[in-house]
Amino acid sequence: MNQRETTARDARIDALTRKLGMNTGAAGDQIRHAAAQNPAVAAAFNSLSDGDIEKISAVLSDPDAARKLLSTPQAQALLRMLRS
Questions:
Q1: Distance between CA atoms of 66 and 6, rounded to whole angstroms?
Q2: How far apart, in Å, do the first and last CA atoms of the chain sit?
Q3: Rg, the chain, Cα only
């Protein structure tokens, strides 16, 4: 991946964390900081394909779908990791 692709991917992940923050009440910066501090969360973000990022963003843009997704036990566990 070249520098331009990396920059574009980072911008998409930043947008994703902002959307996630809006849906969880956390700041996007807080989520990015937690991801940087937690290797498992960082690995999860880094393993996302561009398609995955787009799909997650689409779900987070739909309030009902976001609520349903974020209420799953897996999402709750991830949110607890991000907040610690």
A1: 27
A2: 32
A3: 12
